[in-house]
Amino acid sequence: MSPTADVRAQILEANRQAAEALRTRFLQEKTLVVNLISSPGSGKTTLLEATLARLSGKLKTAVLVGDIATERDADRIRKLGLPAYQILTGGACHLDARQVQGALEKAGFGALDILFIENVGNLICPTSYDLGEDFKVVLLSLTEGDDKPFKYPAIFARASVALLTKVDLLGIVDFDVEAVERQIRTLNPHGEILRVSAKTGEGMEAWCRKLEHALVAKRA
User: Domain named CobW/HypB/UreG nucleotide-binding: which ranges (predicted)?
Assistant: First the structure.
């Protein structure tokens, strides 16, 4: 093993241990944890705003937001009157489990039903880093083009749920939604695919129902 590969293996092992500690904690607290991964501009924060609005009053939620710089996305969540904590990576293209541990200690969210982790906008780096989540969700917007699943196969193969966002643009932008769904099913036959639009509300009920069912299953 080359020195570079050895260092990477050590980093991933340290992350694995931290992620397992987080997973144990979340299991004890009976908190569902969802790791949202996508390219920049796919609509993660907009999806969260619409999701949290629908879950408000029924479930206690909070958001950890990862970005290289600024607290703009966390501020958008806070404007809804909901707790959010911004993790600034200072250049790193993903969050890691130790950052999540540190953020939780500082955030002081208290008891939660669902914790959303909005990862740094990137389809590659976050894929390898377990954050102790129950499942990964990958977002792909219609404005990004319909070739992405086969170009970035790892995240589409590992994510339990694929959300096709901004579907209100179907027929406006050139995007073959059926071809994309075939690509995703080739990579991940057991994953779930949902078409959603935070703008029109299409698919949002099914998405929120998925979250509620996952929470019930975790607490069973």
Answer: 33-194
Contact 135, 114 (CB under 8 A): no
Query: What one-character-per-residue DSSP string does the chain give?
Result: --HHHHHHHHHHHHHHHHHHHHHHHHHHHT-EEEEEE--TTSSHHHHHHHHHHHHTTTS-EEEEEEESS-SHHHHHHHTTT--EEEEE-TT-SS--HHHHHHHHHHH---S-SEEEEE--S-SSGGGG---S-SEEEEEEEGGG-TTHHHHSHHHHHH-SEEEEE-GGGBTTB---HHHHHHHHHHH-TT-EEEE--TTT-TTHHHHHHHHHHHHHHHH-
The pLDDT tens digits for 133-144 are 999 999 999 999
Q: How many whole angstroms from its chain centre is CA 17?
A: 20
Closest residue by Cα to residue 44 from 125, 151, 129, 122: 122
Q: Tell me: the pLDDT tens digits for 32-44?
A: 999 999 999 999 9
Asked whether residue 2 carries a pLDDT value surpassing 80, the answer given is: no
Question: How many domains is the chain partitioned into structurally?
Answer: 1
CATH (domain of 155)? 3.40.50.300
